[in-house]
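Worked problem 6 (solution included).
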Amino acid sequence: MNTKCKAILLFFIIVLGAPVETRAYVDAVPDFIVSGELRDGQVSALRSVEIDKMLASGINWYVGIPRVDNEKARNLFLQAAKLGSPKAKMWLARSYFKGRMGFSRDVAKGEKLAKKNLASVKLLAKKGDVQAMFLLASLYHEGLVVPQDYSKAVSWYRKGTDKGDFIATGNIGGLYNYGHGVEKDHSKALRLYKKSANEGNTFSMMAVAGMYQNGEGVVQNNSTAVTWYKKAAERDNTIVMATLGYMYIDGYGVPKNHNSAMEWYKKAAALGYAFAMNRIGAMYMYGVGVDKNYSIALEWFNKAAEKGDSSAMNSIGVMYMDGTGVDKNYVTAMEWYKKAAELSYPLAMVNIGNMFNKGMGVEQSYSTALEWYQKAAELGSHSAMGWLGYMYEFGHGVAKSRVKAIQWYMKGDALGNEYSKKALKRLE
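Solution. The predicted structure is:
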């Protein structure tokens, strides 16, 4: 399987999960708990039982038991958080931090909430609470308010799996798949993914599909991969639906079919998935499988942007900068680019740099452009690396330096930047 396909699959296989003590809890929670009409003593007595059931039910809805329903999951976590559950609050923190479960991404909010509840979650984990074990493992896995430490993540996930947490099992599979904290072992990863998937975890189903598509730990088989993707999609996993859409767009493991791609994107969009909304906008923007329609493209980009999709924000900025389907407006373009940049979207940072570089709607400033290019380059943007090479080559906003220009061009070229490649040939 080619590198591009692997990158796409890696993008979609996100860190996920949560401990669940039984196959699936019903989300029928007593009214007197949900309403908050409990005295302190009653809350204390019921928390370990009923509130944990609320959390487990929310977790099940999140991973796809019996199907994915982010709204139900969110509501249950919010209800449990209102009752003072530090585990529910940590789940919300993780959701804000990564933009999961239909929440718009808000790193600062996620970090603040996680810091407030870290000590409580650690204490519960050390006392043997399965859900807290998972949460602590995930914090080390993701580096949320603790230094990222894959070895500690593995240790805490294993404590959970020993108590039946099949979603932690799937996450350990991910660590084996990528060699994080353990020696890379695709066969073991696949076994763990399947174990979790067979319990109903749609994210592990997606991971199994990815391994069949890439031929990792198993003989490469596109048909089997699609079967696993569709198992997860049937349970309303919107990430998987969008993955199938992406596959049909470019023919990765399936015959290229733009109509099928649009169908999958629309299914995911109907369930509120911002990425799918953004992809639909792009299809209308560039006329992929549909007639070009900038107005419809903008509508979809706006829908995605309202849900926090940084790529859609950047696309709206591009439309206003170029006057595509709208009146050209550099001020509005800059506003959208900055919204995306605040969410660490590197291409938006490059676009801001370009506007300062060329004086588009702002006072021309090479030094400010350079700052934005550097920010984007730190996030891995090969386009920004090419621009930094250009700035050093011609001395824009910085002392001219052939050596530094070549260094940046080499970095950009290594990541596939065409301008950098041409520049290196020119400077030979």
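Discussion: The first helix runs from residue 3 to 12.
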